């Protein structure tokens, strides 16, 4: 709340990352596979819709939906871990960390 706002006001835009920190941060963020996440999300939503139609292949569609949900969750978990690594590298009071608050 107010404490965070005051802290951000005092810190401005945050501590500037060194060239090496910025390079490492960008490298980590660039390893996130957005296409894989989009594909997994799309497959999940397609399977979810097919399962909801619940025709004679209902259980097959449900299993497909559950499998694609699991795959999508795995990809999101990997993305979150990489983003966490990048945030740790930059630090909470860096320009990147302050920009996220």
Question: How would you sum up this structure, described in words?
Answer:
This protein is mainly alpha-helical and 101 residues long. The protein has helices at 2-11, 19-30, 34-53, 58-90, 95-100. It starts with a helix and ends with a helix. The model has no long low-confidence stretch (mean pLDDT 78).
Work out the strand percent: under 5%
The description of the largest β-sheet is:
none
Helix content bin: over 70%
- What is the average of the pLDDT values? 78
Radius of gyration: 20 Å
Number of strands: 0
Structural class of the helix and strand makeup? Answer: mainly alpha
Query: Helix count, per DSSP?
Result: 5
Please provide the ordered H/E string of secondary-structure elements: HHHHH
Distance between the termini: 11 Å
Are there runs of 5+ residues with pLDDT below 50, and where? none
Give the overall silhouette: elongated
Short description:
Helix content is 80%, strand content 0%. With 101 residues, it is an all-alpha fold.
What descriptors fit this protein?
101 residues, mainly alpha, 5 helices
Blueprint of the fold:
Elements: H1 2-11, H2 19-30, H3 34-53, H4 58-90, H5 95-100
């Amino acid at each position: 709340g107010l404490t965070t706002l005051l802290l951000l006001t005092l810190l401005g835009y945050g501590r500037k990352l060194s060239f090496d920190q910025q390079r490492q941060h960008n490298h980590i963020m660039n390893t996130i596979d957005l296409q894989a996440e989009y594909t997994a999300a799309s497959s999940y939503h397609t399977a979810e819709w097919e399962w909801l139609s619940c025709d004679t292949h209902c259980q097959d569609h449900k299993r497909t939906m559950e499998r694609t949900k699991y795959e999508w969750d795995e990809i999101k978990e990997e993305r979150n871990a990489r983003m966490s690594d990048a945030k740790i590298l930059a630090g909470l009071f860096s320009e990147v960390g302050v920009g996220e608050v």
